[in-house]
Amino acid sequence: MTTSVAEPTPAAKRTEGNLWSYVVGLCSTRDYQELNWEGTFNDYLKIVERNPKVSRSAFQRIYDMILSHGSEEYYEYKKKITRYHFFRDPFENGKDAVFGLDVHLMKLVNAFQSAARRYGTEKRILLLHGPVGSAKSTVVRLLKKGLEHYSRTPEGALYSFSWVKKELNDTRGIFGHQVELSCPMHEEPIKLVPPHVRESVLSEVNRGLKEEERVIIEGDLCPACRHIFRELLHVYRGEWEQVANHIKVRRILLSEKDRIGIGTFQPKDEKNQDSTELTGDINYRKIAEYGSDSDPRAFNFDGEFNIANRGLIEFIEVLKLDVAFLYDLLGASQEHKIKPKKFAQTDIDEVIVGHTNEPEYRKFQNNEYMEALRDRTVKIDLPYITKLHEEKL
Q1: Looking at residues 270-281, what average pLDDT do you find?
Q2: Checking DSSP bridges between strand 247-252 and strand 38-39, what pairing results, if any?
Q3: Domain count, the chain
Q4: DSSP 146-184
Q5: Please, which residues bridge with residue 188 across strands?
Q6: What pLDDT is attached to residue 16?
């Protein structure tokens, strides 16, 4: 199924000298309200009951996104090959379309399928390998573009939450000077269900679903939300229902420019880059408000790993990274955890995609100190096109 750009409504038909009305007709208030939906935690649970797919993992979401654009099968040299229409770039009329690599793109989609069904690939870094100009960056750009578009469709909707002060007598200074605090890592709202009852809740959600469609929520809240949740539980003496009244669930739209669910990391000069670009850093302005640099509310969870949660992070020329950054990659891929400074390990749910060329890959293969990272990568080859008719396209 291909989602096309909406046609102007009859009210938005342009007449001469009436360009303003035409623009107003295209900018639908109803569309804005749907894409920026807000509601209570109870409202969100009703959405999950109707459509459990809103709580999919990042790998499941990307796999479903690719399938949503349809595919076709053909035989070449007696081998069945699947061509996915997603890689023809239906978003910008073929601007970033990839031709002649159907076999290799099929292997990439198979990796997403394996990860979506939790066969082990979800604990690996997807490494696109090939010569200069073989569409490695184009494929990742397509995935980013597709995620942004998919999150704006009813099938690709996903949600996060904010903490709202409301009528709380905040003697403990939970909210500081603010009345609303958004989850900095755009966490899945079901993580707000206490771990000891989460399994029972998910069993209800997954009743009647196929194994590959079941919702599996792992890990805990980010440190900032965990702190607020714990403090509110203390205020209400364990009454979870009262705590839930301070939760506002909202729909989120993945966007690389807005740094929501899509991140990009590129190696730079060693003196101008440190690991806080991946895992966040202390907000010194807020230390005076919260009193300690180890208070999670005084920490900016805005590293690339943090903001890419629920989506995808791209590592440009990943094998040129300094060793210190590769340590973060090991935990992020295998354990789905990162270690922000002065905080416990934090759970993430995102697809890690890197790309590299042949000289860097050979160097990587010959480095005995990189064995741990080699074990955590799935290499997808993207060679040059060798078919003239595909090149002409």
Answers
A1: 80
A2: antiparallel
A3: 1
A4: HHHHHTTSSTT-EEEEEEE-TT---TT-SSTT-SEEE-T
A5: none
A6: 62
5-9, 243-247, 312-316 — which is least confidently predicted? 5-9
The answer to whether position 93 is within a domain reads yes
pLDDT band with cut points at 50, 70 and 90 for residue 13: low
- pLDDT at residue 345 above 60? yes
Helix (H), strand (E) counts: the chain: 16, 15
Band the pLDDT of 1: cuts 50, 70, 90. Answer: very low
Residue 167: give the domain boundaries.
40-392
7 located within any domain: no
Residue 332, domain member (yes or no): yes
Sequence-ordered strand ranges (E) for 192-321: 247-252, 262-265, 281-282, 299-300, 312-315
User: How far apart are alpha carbons 182 and 43 in whole angstroms?
Assistant: 18
Confidence (pTM): 0.89
Residue with tokens 């309200």: 33
Asked whether residue 105 is domain-assigned, the answer is yes
3-state secondary structure of 222: coil
Which residues are within 8 A (CB) of 15 and not within 5 positions of it... i.e. 6 or more apart?
A: 21, 22
